[in-house]
Amino acid sequence: MRSRLRRFFLRTWPIVALLHLYIGAQLLPAYAPAWRIVGAACLAASTLLIPAGFLSRFREGDSWDLVAWAGFLDLGLFSSTLVFTVLRELALLLPDTGHLAAPSATAVPAAALLVSLIGLINARRVARVVDVHVRLPGLPAGLEGFTIVQISDIHVGPTIKAGHVKAIVDRVNALAPDLVAVTGDVVDGQVERLREHTAPLGQLRARHGAWLVTGNHEYYSGAAAWVAEFERLGLRCLLNEHAVLVHEGARFVLAGVTDLQGQAFDPAHRSDPFKALQASPEGLPRILLAHQPRSSAEAARAGFDLQLSGHTHGGQFWPWNHFVGLQQPFTAGLHRVGDLQVYVSRGTGYWGPPKRFGAPSEITRIRLAAAT
Question: Which residue ranges form the domains of the chain, and what is each CATH number?
Answer without folding.
Answer: 2-124 (no CATH), 128-370 (3.60.21.10)
